[in-house]
Write a structure and sequence with these properties.
12% of the residues lie in helices and 44% in strands. With 59 residues, it is mainly beta. It has a single domain, classed as SH3 type barrels (Roll), CATH 2.30.30. The chain has a five-stranded antiparallel beta sheet, covered by helices on one side.
Length: 59
């Protein structure tokens, strides 16, 4: 899957704050994402994120 920095990922599941859109800050073996509602940053393995992507909005 072709995910680039500054893309917005719409996920299948919501963040605990209720938002399901995340900004991509870094790519590689892990993704660093920022929640667009609360601003929390998280790093998770690429394989886990790619399974949960519903849509990619190019930014």
């Amino acid at each position: 899957m072709d995910v680039q920095v500054n893309d917005v990922l719409v996920m299948k599941k919501n963040h605990p704050c209720g938002e399901n859109r995340f900004l991509v800050l870094r790519t590689g073996m892990d993704f660093k994402l920022r929640c667009l509602k609360c601003g929390r940053e998280l790093m998770t393995p690429r394989s886990k994120i790619e399974r949960h992507i519903k849509k990619i909005e190019r930014g």
